[in-house]
Design brief:
This protein is mostly helical. The chain contains one helix and no strands. The protein is about 60% helix and about 0% strand. The radius of gyration is 25 Å and the shape is elongated.
């Protein structure tokens, strides 16, 4: 049986010119994104609360 991928299925996996990141470095990049999002959400929450106080007055 022939498949459309027969010509490439056994080729070696491509390699990147960049060095591999350690697991610690990968985790650190996502922590910085998480911290940024946390700040944005806190700021939005503060604005919502500030507007809620204005509406009650």
């Amino acid at each position: 049986m022939s498949s459309p991928y027969d010509d490439i299925i056994h080729l070696p996996r491509p390699s990147s010119a960049r060095p591999r990141m350690s697991m610690t470095e990968r985790a650190a990049q996502f922590i910085s994104i998480y911290e940024s999002m946390k700040k944005i959400i806190a700021h939005e929450s503060m604005l919502i609360m500030k507007n809620a106080v204005k509406i009650k007055l």
